[in-house]
Amino acid sequence: MLVFNRLTQLTLGVILISTLSATEHKYNLGTNITPSEYKAWDISIFADGKNLPKGSGNYKDGKEIFATKCAYCHGDSGKGGIKLDKYRSPIATLVRSKDDTLSGEKPKKNIGTYWQHSTLLFDYIRRAMPYENPKSLTTDELYSLSAYLLAENKIISKDTIVTEKNLAQIKMPNAEGFICDNHVDTKNIPCMKDCLTPEDKNFNKGVVVDMKDYLKSDCLIESKY
């Protein structure tokens, strides 16, 4: 009887300790993100201009900003050629030269020859530049740098004021130079036998399309089946 009571007491003790541990233990896995914290990361700019903040910029201001905050890596007027160290190749040009082309033996990829959307300039510069201090530029500085680089590539005139209302409307020279990646293994329904190919009529039948307007401006496939 004594043994039974001892076992009962021991069992009850283990249950009590386990219960207390479960209710009192904190795992320190973090806290819910606040709206202000989320907003700091929610900075994606879409091809059609969605999420562009209010602001404006011009060529003159952009030229001054570029000279003080960008040229030491990207070279005068964005012409590149700066070698940061012996291990890396010189920085490539941001500006299209007269004979630059994508169809040559060595395609020249820069803003004027390759970039698909003008809003990419704003989005990328805001995220990543200046290299040593990203996300430090103001909204107006970003619009000014966009205006400067677009004008240097002869895509807009130097007197164009770039704002959230017109940046997405600026058509890039290579806007139509991209194709949709609609391979079976990335876009279509899973298939292991007798799979359709892009040449088949119903190839896109199983494609799941996000019909949100701000995504349609990029490279999605619309199924008509």
Q: Rounded to an integer, what's the Rg over CA atoms?
A: 28 Å
**Care to count the β-strands?**
2
CATH architecture of the largest domain: Orthogonal Bundle
Secondary structure category: mainly alpha
Q: What is the mean pLDDT? A: 80
Topology as a string of helices (H) and strands (E): HHEHHHHEHH
Named CATH topology of the largest domain:
Cytochrome Bc1 Complex, Chain D, domain 2
Query: In whole angstroms, how far apart are the ends?
Result: 78 Å
Write down the overall geometry.
globular
User: Sheet with the most strands?
Assistant: 2 strands, antiparallel
Beta-sheet strand percentage? under 5%
Under CATH, the homologous superfamily of the largest domain reads: Cytochrome c-like domain
Number of H- or I-type helical stretches = 8
Low-confidence stretches: 209-218, 220-225
User: Considering DSSP H and I runs of 4 or more, what fraction of the residues is helical?
Assistant: 25-40%
Q: What spatial order of strands do you see in the largest sheet?
A: 1-2
- Per CATH, the class of the largest domain reads Mainly Alpha
The number of domains: 2
**Oligomerization state of this entry?**
single chain
Structure overview:
Helices cover 34% and strands 2% of the residues. The protein has 2 domains: 41-169, Cytochrome c-like domain (Cytochrome Bc1 Complex, Chain D, domain 2, Orthogonal Bundle); 179-225, no CATH class. It is mainly alpha-helical and 225 residues long. The chain has 8 helices and 2 strands, in the order H-H-E-H-H-H-H-E-H-H. Helix 3 (59-69) crosses helix 6 (139-152) and helix 5 (119-128) packs across helix 6 (139-152).
